[in-house]
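During the no-cost extension, the postdoctoral fellow (Dr. R.K.) reprocessed legacy sequence entries with the updated structure-token encoder. One reprocessed record is reproduced below for audit purposes.
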Amino acid sequence: MSNRQPRERQQRRKNPSDRHAAPRRVSERSRASGGRPAGAFRQRGSDSSLRTNSFYAHDQWYEPSDSDVIQLYRRDPGVGFIHPVTLQEVTDRVEQLPVQFRQNIEVIELARMTRKRSLFPCYGLQWGPNVYLYPIEESLVETYTRPPRPEQVIEAKMYGGVWTQDGKLWRLSWTEHALRDFYLNNVLIHEIGHVNDTRNRNQNARERYADWFAIEYGYRVSRGRR
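Re-encoded structure tokens follow.
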């Protein structure tokens, strides 16, 4: 992917301990083997959004590069998990963005679900100029012990996800098409929004900006509404 332009290099954090991790949640596969589903939901976010968390699951750190090509990597998703999108689909989607939003991206990785990451899972993560997209249960069903917030119900519905209640559990079910749409037009674009957010330092402000970016350049564009 060669849409990045030469730019002045910025100082980047190289200490992995400044990373972001999402709250605990046990996968459907773990629950079936005796684990318990947790109440916290998968998240998207930036490297700054949970710096104070004492537990973090490391990802592959990539040293800054002078290349004007976005580097793409695919890791094995892990047993019981799948990557909802391919590298080619990611490439095609990123190339649809205005060129100024592609310039600051250096790496996009389809990351692996590790043991630690399964305790603090998230859909995606921005770490400096790098974007990570995480796998999801191969059953395409997420299970939680707490009811979703209204905004979570609305967001899932926007992309075709369906919430159902099963006794004391709540399940978020996807089709392959809906999950691909969600990752390409929400999760990926949300994280790229974080990469391009050079103004906000407050966690809530950064999330508001990334949410806006995902709607403006992900959802609306993909629906032909912009």
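The longest strand covers residues 122-127. The two ends are 24 Å apart (CA to CA). The remaining legacy entries will be reprocessed before the final report is submitted.
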